[in-house]
Request: fold
Amino acid sequence: MATTTDIETRERLTPGAASSALWDYAPSLEATDHAKLASRYNLFIGGKFVEPHSKRWFETINPATEGTLAEVAEADAEDVDRAVKEARRAYDKSWRKLAASERAKYIFRIARLIQEKSRALAVVETMNGGKPIKESRDIDIPLAAAHFFYYAGWADKLEYAFPNRNVAPVGVAGQIIPWNFPLLMAAWKIAPALAAGNTVVLKPAETTSLTALLLAEIIQEAELPPGVVNIITGAGGTGAALVNHTDVDKIAFTGSTEVGKRIQRAISGSKKRLTLELGGKAPNIVFEDAPLDQAIEGIINGIYFNQGHVCCAGSRLFVQESIVEPIIRKLRDRIGTLRVGNPLDKNTDVGAINSRAQLEKIQELVQSGVDEGAEMVQSKCSLPARGFWFAPTFFTGVAQSYRIAQEEIFGPVLSVLTFRTPEEAIEKANNTPYGLSAGVWTEKGSRILKMASKLRAGVIWANTYNKFDPSSPFGGFKESGFGREGGMHGLSPYVRLS
Amino acid sequence: MSEQLIHSAPSFSPALFRRSLGDALEMVHGVDAVAVEERAASLAKRSLKKEAKVWGLNLAISMIDLTTLEGKDTRGKVIALCQKAMRPDPLDPTVPHVAAVCVYPAMIGFVKKALAGSGVHIASVATGFPSGQTFGEIKVRETRDAVAAGADEIDMVIDRGAFLSGDYQKVFDEIAEVKEACGPAHLKVILETGELANYDQVRKASLIAMFAGGDFIKTSTGKVGVNATLPVTLVMLEAIRDFYHATGKKIGMKPAGGIANAKLCLAYLVMLYETLGGEWMNPDMFRFGASSLLNDILMQLKKEKSGAYQSGDYFTID
Reply:
């Protein structure tokens, strides 16, 4: 059982006031028979699915069952070269010459097809990634479609986004995306690139390639000119080949800070443009005048949404000392009501950890929290025997110097710290190498504005958390990266201005 | 899942609890409207099937205050309602009786006779229902007379005029006086949330009602434009939870008005279950103020048994 067995649990939560076994919700499983998967997927290059030059395929699994879903091709340097060549050809021959309003039509078509196939996409996203079906159904897939709709609207209005400038595309974009929001990240990357007239080579994460490949089928169905979007699968080696390819004009990467730094080193001295969206260790700051019960929901959503596999997760909770007692009590009761289990169950709140490697990383960091002396509170929920699982957890008595307060855990684990004054909150919140996002909870409007101006973070949520919209830019400060995705700002990395 | 829980008649212990208005106002804080509505909507998305659904629907029946509050109420109408209350489905003895029949004071006599020995409680509105715009002595007197006539439970209205003009002391004192007049009867305090303007006020009124001695807090009279809603109920349940942690006393909750179908009532039960937990999942701690809800639940229960929906003609209109 790949669970928390190796962790000395300091305190197993007695089911909170709100979670006796009185009422068992019967399983309510999302049907999967309508989501048809092939047994093997090839590379999507030049508008066709082609066998990889490498002649290698790897298995992709369901992290909730460890069962194999399909085989996915592994692209080698040769395959990457093929994809980039196709993208270059499409860029020169068709896409850059196409009337902007025509480009928009193709992008609108992709958006509509995503909506039409949203049920199947949601099911596959959940099976391949482990996230609860309610999240893929209500958030991932609708937002992915919304990004295509949004940027389709910009395609023939670029001169209004950049007034008094000449706007031209950049060329071929190499895009590398993570495993936490597979289809949504593909949409974030592809939609603005296409709208601005670029062609792309996209590499999804190796554990979660399937929805990107379904997107490739959608792109085929939308009859995009061949080569405008190429999707190549593989692990780090494939990504490196794409980053190092000499005919790529722009690299966009979302993932870990460590890999982001490697990419920046690799392309330094080249003409390639770069945007990085990296890790985070976001502060979620709760003042004593906050709407407490809603703040609890924001804290829960901030850290347990998508099992905490969220770069902008509110993983450091800062609580004003005068309300520590009620906040901890409410948090304790609330994590007892989170339903952990089969991601395909419509009532599941927290699904499976994405991979064994990620589970081990979470376990290691949680152990360090216990060893360093923090107090652990963990949901007593039962966990399935197969698959990768981690019970919702939070630590109290965390010092700023502990690893669990410094390092990105990327799991359902929250560190609770305290503060006395707004100045102290700002100082501690900014005391991190990251700066992707932050949350502020207070009923006082002027305090929200003051905090927002002092916090060094790309996104600041006030009295809410983890809210996304295609019209709102997203990106980081410091080691959380640079460049913005979403909104008008999200077009900038994909245009050449003169 | 306890069968006995559903069939047990409501029983209350007299509440001797009383604190000051200051205690209530100390626990007042803001409620974020966007977030509370979002949370309520997410709870309403729970998917309940099969046994879980049947259990919830049976529990819901046992929590209904079957209500008729009309100027045109007659003895005949009220007696028919009582029959329905005792045996919601005459052909199916496994369906529990409802919690109470809720009427105007003038109807208590008929209800008492009709319900004798059934275990179904008699609830009466009082205190100048629904507006509450009458003299204090009359409110107290009406309460006392309703209890003397046989009411087990009194549903009072708060003085919204006093509340909205900031005279919280008056609201508090009136509830306390009515509670005293109730004697052994159980007091439900109607906040009429549709007239309180926002969630901050709902929380404040909830705390005042609980600290002044109410045994239940109730959303609405059913007589204004906006009656019970899921977010308002959530705000009140959260106030009940905070009150319980502060005082150790468990207060009941009654959403009323506009809960007309089985699906919606299950959403309320999910909200109750995931906010206050199993100890509130019984007719002593939670009620639905409703009239047409019962037939919709019966229809759903029949569907779960037979696999097909029956025509409305198979369910009695009372």
